[in-house]
Design a protein that fits this description.
Elements lengths: L4 H24 L22 E5 L4 H13 L6 E8 L6 H14 L5 E5 L8 H20 L3 E3 L4 H14 L3 H4 L5 E2 L5 E2 L7 H10 L16 H17 L3 H29 L7 E2 H5 L3 H14 L9 H12 L7 E3 L3 E6 L2 E6 L1
Parallel strand pairs: 1-2, 1-4, 2-3, 4-6
Antiparallel strand pairs: 5-6, 7-10, 8-9, 9-10
């Protein structure tokens, strides 16, 4: 008899991602063509096998992901390890991190480590914790030479991200949610974006894998927590089941649109600059609004504005220097960046 359907689902999701990681590794390192796949019978020596890490908090999603990685990796000649990040935001977090490390080690993942971080305050508690976590994961991946880091975000997380983007009114890119592949050189992979949260939890239950439920996930002080426990249930009550799946599908469609518009804007950006590299207002005006605003956003970030602090309203103000010019003065933007119209050119710089 085969595995429980929930276990089979998470293993299949991880297997597909591992195949992608191996494919990418072969492109980058053709000499590693002896990786075992279902169509290859030879194997790599241990030091040549690509390493894939799983970011594991000890919660159901990431523990399910760790278990699937531990099962699938040996069959594909992939080394599997794990990292748990101790944010230090709760009493006893170091002891919990040690417990997670022990459980991951029991799955025969290697290397396994706990990394303690200091969470700042910039951008709010959720954003600050996320920034600290990704910085720690980036450092761990570099330290161990990992080919990829797997993240346990589920379809439910994707739906929540889309709703948060909708609430911010930040456009198509914000509605596209989390990418299946992201980070430098495609470091981060999210195998569970098509897997619902309940499936991951069920997979842990039937495999008798202990999980830890972070109290922050039910704390109404956090926006995502309120959305998870109040907002989404209210939507499902009003609109019926299937809201989460529909929102995740919206993310996929929005990402395709956003990618196409970003590519268009990248090409257009080169054509709207003069010989000195300044943006020409007349040429910007001729662009479709969605493309023009992407060009402007890229230029503002390039001048030094932090992307995380730059919102749609900022870009709309800069856009008015092109489409609603009435002699207005400079626009002040995050990161001490200012944008002003001068002699038919748009000048964006720190000052």
């Amino acid at each position: 008899m085969g595995p429980h359907p929930a276990v089979a689902a998470i293993r299949l999701a991880v297997r597909r991602v591992l195949h992608d990681v191996l494919h990418d590794a072969l492109i980058e390192r053709p000499e590693a063509s002896r990786v075992t796949t279902p169509h290859r019978s030879s194997t790599l020596v241990a030091d040549d096998r690509p390493l894939v890490l799983v970011a594991c908090s000890g919660g159901a999603d990431s523990m399910a992901l760790a278990s699937a990685l531990a099962f699938e990796a040996p069959k594909l000649s992939v080394r599997a390890g794990a990292v748990t990040v101790d944010h230090g935001l709760q009493d006893g977090s170091d002891l919990r991190a040690a417990e997670v490390v022990a459980r991951l080690g029991g799955m025969r993942l290697d290397p396994v480590e706990s990394v303690a971080v200091t969470v700042g305050r910039e951008g709010g508690p959720e954003a600050a914790a996320r920034d600290a976590r990704y910085a720690a994961l980036d450092a761990a991946a570099e330290r161990h030479g990992a080919a990829a880091v797997l993240l346990g975000h589920t379809r439910d997380d994707q739906a929540e991200t889309v709703l948060l983007g909708l609430a911010r009114g930040s456009g198509t890119r914000s509605l596209s949610g989390m990418a299946a592949v992201s980070g430098a050189a495609g470091r981060y992979r999210r195998p569970f974006l098509q897997v619902d949260r309940q499936t991951a939890r069920k997979a842990c239950l039937v495999q008798s894998i202990p999980v830890w439920d972070d109290p922050h996930n039910t704390d109404p002080a956090y926006t995502r927590s309120r959305l998870r426990h109040e907002g989404l249930p209210a939507l499902e009550k009003a609109l019926g089941k299937g809201v989460v799946e529909a929102l995740a599908r919206t993310a996929r469609l929005s990402r395709d649109d956003a990618d196409a518009l970003d590519a268009w804007a990248a090409d257009a950006e080169r054509s709207v600059r003069d010989a000195a590299g300044l943006l020409e207002c007349a040429k910007l005006y001729a662009l479709p609004p969605a493309v023009r605003r992407r060009v402007l956003r890229t230029a503002v970030i390039g001048a030094g504005a932090p992307a995380g602090s730059l919102f749609a309203r900022h870009i709309e103000e800069v856009d008015r220097l092109i489409t609603g010019w009435r002699g207005q003065g400079a626009i002040n933007l995050p990161g001490r960046v200012e944008a002003r119209r001068q002699g038919g050119r748009l000048v964006i710089r720190q000052g």
